[in-house]
Amino acid sequence: MDQLEQDFLHGLKTVLGLPNPFVPLHEPEFMGNEWELVKDCLDSTFVSSVGKYVDHFEVMLAEYTGAKYVVAVVNGTAALHIALLLAGVRPGDEVLIPALSFVATANAVAHCGAIPHFIDSEFKTLGIDPHALSDYLKHCSLSSSEGLTNRFTGRRIAAVVPMHTYGHPVDMVSLLDVADRYDLTVVEDAAESLDSRYQGQHTGTFGLLGTLSFNGNKVITTGGGGAILTNDAELARQAKHWTTTAKQPHRWEFFHDAVAWNYRLPNLNAALGCAQMEQLPDFLRRKRLLAQQYEKVFKDIDGIDFVVEPPNSQSNYWLNTLRLNQPSFEMRDRLLTAANEVGYQCRPTWTLLHKLPMYADCPRAPLPIAEQLEASLINVPSSAKVALV
Amino acid sequence: MDQLEQDFLHGLKTVLGLPNPFVPLHEPEFMGNEWELVKDCLDSTFVSSVGKYVDHFEVMLAEYTGAKYVVAVVNGTAALHIALLLAGVRPGDEVLIPALSFVATANAVAHCGAIPHFIDSEFKTLGIDPHALSDYLKHCSLSSSEGLTNRFTGRRIAAVVPMHTYGHPVDMVSLLDVADRYDLTVVEDAAESLDSRYQGQHTGTFGLLGTLSFNGNKVITTGGGGAILTNDAELARQAKHWTTTAKQPHRWEFFHDAVAWNYRLPNLNAALGCAQMEQLPDFLRRKRLLAQQYEKVFKDIDGIDFVVEPPNSQSNYWLNTLRLNQPSFEMRDRLLTAANEVGYQCRPTWTLLHKLPMYADCPRAPLPIAEQLEASLINVPSSAKVALV
Ligand SMILES: Cc1ncc(COP(=O)(O)O)c(C=O)c1O
Ligand SMILES: Cc1ncc(COP(=O)(O)O)c(C=O)c1O
Q1: Nearest to A252 among B215, B223, B336 (CB)
Q2: Judged by CB atoms within 8 Å, which residues 284-303 of B form the interface with A?
């Protein structure tokens, strides 16, 4: 075993203690009012499409994020699908997304009948690099009265989707500047960044719309769940309408006025979400302590760095991330093997989206940084409960 | 108030007792192990995409329905969407569905990029009329080596979707015969017909694929949920793969091999489903008693009939249904007004799908029976708990 492997395992042990027998990557915690609210929901019999917990959860999220309107939905993929449709993404359009993201970002674009167009990431934020994007658009796009088109494919470029990777905010001031100059609608994939802030403003509230996920591996969970954030009353109304079969209110008639989805969050899952929201500040306090422990311990280890929150930002440190100084799939996989064998669940970042067969033919910018990050990022155990507080 | 209104209210009172203050159309019941299993699920922390309850729920459904394979998903709309894709429905195809159905049947077709093509219903079953379908296909379709096409639109007709209305099974022998002669793939929308059988065989198991819903208003509920049924191992494997982001199993790599969905049922909702499945036989016993009470009481009332299960079929009597002898929107709405004002929640059937703006331009067969049914059907309170047992 070489030095880096030894140091890496030693670092994990220092932060996490000995695995006994297994430290998961991210585990939820239900130590608050989860049982009570879920039981109350069952007792009410309103477990499904109607019920007070959905409304309550939406209000809690609005208050927490500062978004004016929140629409709870069945998961983060559904949230992004509808947000993109509301942003005007239409079949045959292209949507700019980072090559370094979870596959759901690209899938939501495909669910609109649109085509992902992959953009490079920034070393510091792990998210879309606004400067690289700007340079790229200069040569690959054409602006006209009909909007932005891809000079090579002739397709409309309808939107850009910054994703706040592992909780670290994208450089939003620069991104909004580029979007503004190119007349691009911004939809933020904030699935991973509940409580992450850029210059004090919550991620997901910069774009026309933003989306959250409450999957089991996120900072809070509803089993499965997601939300659409917006400051636009009319978009919020439509988001609710399109995610609830577009039924017009009536005493008894079933009149629906648009092709629509059953994307509503069940009240049962919302009840869990309300209890989780109450815990969120405590989860985040402990997650931040854990991140500080990683930062401190790995500062002294050569060859690998802990990824800290970008300047002007506050990260939720959803998944703590280490970065090899020398990108190497071989070394990355050796460290992953060593850690997972001992019982620390560690993961590489995602396979870059343009390397997946269904997205291999999609347009893309040069991706030098994303390629480096793919060969150097390692996620390490990040549950609030493993922080030694 | 005229005689029919008086008789109708009196009939409801005889069956249901006095509303105190309100008898809902259909209410779930959680008097079994619901809380225990949900609590166990919370305690395990596996509330989301991984967990034993999803597997368990799928096995229970397979045993109950006789389907070889069951894939639990997030709701009935998602189930039908994926079932149609698996049946080979592609953008620009037409799919034959009843005009008399909940909007989700048409939406699932639209979600595939396909076009609903509306078919008439049968008076007895309230579902697709196989004989009318056969006559209609004779003049409107063309068979060739590429399959069936619509002679007027030139589009491929990819599948037919019988829906078992309010639990009453479609005449499946005749329908399968038509499908066979025209080489049409059958996908059953069995959202409303868990436990309904045709000649002893469970609805949803006749077609290549079938789908269920566990929405809050159905015979059992998971908050939100659905399932795909099939006897084909490869289709079942694909259904699971496509509804769970098409991720290839690997110790740590994120490699996905198809555009796919996050349509998995959370383990929390599956835990509720397992407990509900335990109760199902008792729910159905009581629902059948309630239906018998309606049948008996409304036998003596002139001008309105109770819809009984079709020949050779066993209905789950999901929603008990009365039918005016003389179709009349005016009389229907008078009865609805009277009943709802007193506190019996009653509903008309759905607005026929071709009357909704987004489906108004879709192709359709003559719909004389569906038109009559629309002006004559009334759903009356149907919860198992209101049966006077
Ligand atoms: C970046 C990103 N986008 C979208 C999603 C989709 O969210 P969900 O799993 O709730 O559908 C996730 C999380 O899984 C994600 O990490
Ligand atoms: C005929 C029919 N199809 C599809 C669905 C869709 O099911 P879900 O509401 O679970 O999406 C329903 C129930 O709502 C239904 O009644």
Answers
A1: B336
A2: none
Ligand 2: centre distance to CA B92 (Å): 23
Q: Do B49 and A107 touch (CB under 8 A)?
A: no
| Percent share of chain B, pLDDT over 90 | 96
Smallest CA–CA distance, residue B77 to chain A, in Å, is: 7
Ligand 1 centroid to Cα of residue A77, in Å, is: 6
Q: What pTM value is reported for the model?
A: 0.98
Q: What would the 3-class secondary structure string for chain A be? A: CCHHHHHHHHHHHHHHCCCCCCECCCCCCCCCCHHHHHHHHHHHCCCCCCCHHHHHHHHHHHHHHCCCEEEEECCHHHHHHHHHHHCCCCCCCEEEEECCCCHHHHHHHHHCCCEEEEECECCCCCCECHHHHHHHHHHHEEEECCEEEECCCCCEEEEECCECHHHCCCCHHHHHHHHHHCCCEEEEECCCCCCCEECCEECCCCCCEEEEECCCCCCCCCCCCEEEEECCHHHHHHHHHHCECCECCCCCCCCECCCCCECECCHHHHHHHHHHHHHHHHHHHHHHHHHHHHHHHHHCCCCEEECCCCCCEECCCCCEEEEECCCCHHHHHHHHHHHHHHCECCEECCCCHHHCHHHCCCCECCCHHHHHHHCCEEEECCCHHHCCC
The reported pLDDT for the residue numbered A389 is 61
Residue B113, chain A, CB below 8 Å: the answer is yes
For B224-234, write each residue's pLDDT tens digit. Answer: 999 999 999 99
Average pLDDT of the residues of chain B: 97
How confident is the model over B137-158, as a mean pLDDT? 95
Q: Is the CB of A188 under 6 A from ligand 1?
A: no
Q: What is the pLDDT of residue A179?
A: 98
Instruction: Tell me the shortest Cα–Cα distance from B181 to chain A, in angstroms.
Output: 32
Confidence of residue A112 (pLDDT cuts 50, 70, 90): very high
Cα(B212) to centroid(ligand 2), Å: 8
Residue ranges and CATH numbers for the domains of chain B are 3-29+280-386 (3.90.1150.10), 34-277 (3.40.640.10)
